[in-house]
Amino acid sequence: MSGDGSRQRQSWAARHTQKTRQTTSKVRANSIENILAEQEYRIDAFAAPQTAKDARSRQTYSTSGGYPGDLSAGTFSSTSSSRQGSSNGSSSGGSSSSSSAWLRKTKLVCTIGPATGSRQELFKLADAGMSVARLNMSHGSHESHKAVIDLVTAYNETGRGCVATMLDTKGPEVRSGDLAEPIPLERGQSLTFTITEGETGKDRRVSVNYDGFIDDVSIGDELLVDGGIISFAVTGKTDTDVQVEVVDAGVLESRRHLNVRGKSATLPAITDKDWLDLKFGVDAGVDYFALSFVKDAQVILDVKKWLSAQGSKIKVLAKIESADSVKALDEILDAVDGAMVARGDLGAELPLEDVPFWQNQIIQGCRRRGKPVIVATNMLESMISNPAPTRAEVSDIAIAVREGADAIMLSGETAYGKFPLKAVAVQSTVALRTEAAMTRYQGARRFGTDEAAPIDWVTPPGRRSSSSSGGPSDGALSEMFAYHSTTMANTVGAPLLVFSKKGGMPALLSHYRPNKTVFAFTDDAQVQRHLALYHGVIPLLLSFSDDAEATIDAAIAALVARGYLAKGQVVTLVQSGKRPIWRSASTHTIQVRRVESKHMGSSSSLDDD
Ligand SMILES: Nc1ncnc2c1ncn2[C@@H]1O[C@H](COP(=O)(O)OP(=O)(O)OP(=O)(O)O)[C@@H](O)[C@H]1O
Ligand SMILES: CC(=O)C(=O)O
């Protein structure tokens, strides 16, 4: 790039930014007024209502007080929402555009285990708002995981909602072996971990499942059990044994996770068991792989190459949970389809106080790249045994939502906890409340004082990479389209309606975080499930006819039938992407369409109904 070109580009970008600021000013002003006019926030938003009536009777979060940040004013009610699905002409600016429902944008990932593996419990979890069912390959069998995948398929076939499946690999974990009985350990006592097989605790000798353990450990290291519930100082070692002294006391049980603070094990990135599990996932048709203990980009590229050789479109997420993975964060995030902040192991390998910093880095890294990111582990740990969360847990959810995570995850809370549905309801409500408050506070900052810099999640796309004709490339054009569609939708206070075959444009729209929902219609069930993870996107399945207008009308009618839109409301319609569906009929367009009489009353032609 020549110096001149660079200057030109900068000045274009500067002008563009200035214009955009002016436009977003209007956008925010409208949004604040719209939000002030809206006092109800619907929860369990991603379990789509089947009819407008159904939508009306859904649980709502109503604020009797003046602003959504006023938690004391909030009340849960299961009563009918007087606004949902009904005429909603009260929004400001002469626009009758705003949908009355404030739909939750942050998605919920739930680990399925003994507490939630039955048809009844899994369906309840999905109805309560689960968008992704996580299968942890450290537990259960292929048969039990296949049964869960079949249940998710059955749920999706009911048309009640869209749930994706995520297979989480066990990864190269170092574990202690089976014990004859648990060993109580007091501070100062000694113990020996050995690579000799069959040591079950006699003479305080315990086997470890990995020979390289000896080389990975040095005298003076801190050795942790299950992320720190017991800790040891390494005091000596031989060719086969590691001697340790108890620092934090506890009871050592069978097959516990061992790791050395600040060091990653030198195990292969993907173990033989992982490859068998990945093959199982391909055969069973899961939607996402979450790869444990990813160390660098190469392992991602290897799995992606293997997947494409199998003709599989499974998306690959990297779990960032090791000292190695944070060192290689940028190259890993460049290679993956998304990431998980796996705080359990991350907090064992790194000092605990570093975890919030890395959580933020990982979220921002994914947000910059337009890739989905999940925040996981301990989000509502106390709800494994208690029916209500701690205040700190509520704050933790709010922080992840404010930082811009696409999804938040539950582990033991839904796998074996006593209150899985309550845990989902808490995540859902806290996310919803936080999102509503964020939108308002952002606006207040922008139009109020200069006290705090506005939260700026999005930057306008640059006019990067030009095509052979000299203009922006298709990819850059799509990004600009997504950006300007978002600005337009925000200005009119309307949700977005997009048609997509591969999910690219809905993902781009999600990246720009529009104020309202992105209703993404696709004719591919797997693309629909992939989109279930993306922030603010409600993915719906629909056959695309050759007639663009007929398809658009069918989509609007489907949204009306589900209670998402009502007569007189407007939607921002986006037809774009690298391969627009109706290129012959229209190229790239952004339009604002109003819901008319012809969209009312007809039954939805959604494929999943
Ligand atoms: N498919 C399953 N079958 C049985 N139990 C499960 C299953 N999935 C999860 N669990 C239980 O839920 C707990 C929490 O789930 P999570 O996915 O967070 O496990 P984990 O903490 O990664 O596992 P580990 O205990 O191996 O470190 C597990 O420790 C296990 O007891
Ligand atoms: C989710 C997970 O694996 C972790 O937090 O370590």
TrEMBL record:
Cellular component per GO, a single term: chloroplast stroma
Reaction catalysis annotation: pyruvate + ATP = phosphoenolpyruvate + ADP + H(+)
Molecular-function GO terms, alphabetical: ATP binding; kinase activity; magnesium ion binding; potassium ion binding; pyruvate kinase activity
Biased composition (Low complexity): 72-99, 460-471
First-tier enzyme category under EC: transferase
UniProt similarity note: Belongs to the pyruvate kinase family.
Protein name: Pyruvate kinase
Organism, as annotated: Tetradesmus obliquus
Lineage: Eukaryota, Viridiplantae, Chlorophyta, core chlorophytes, Chlorophyceae
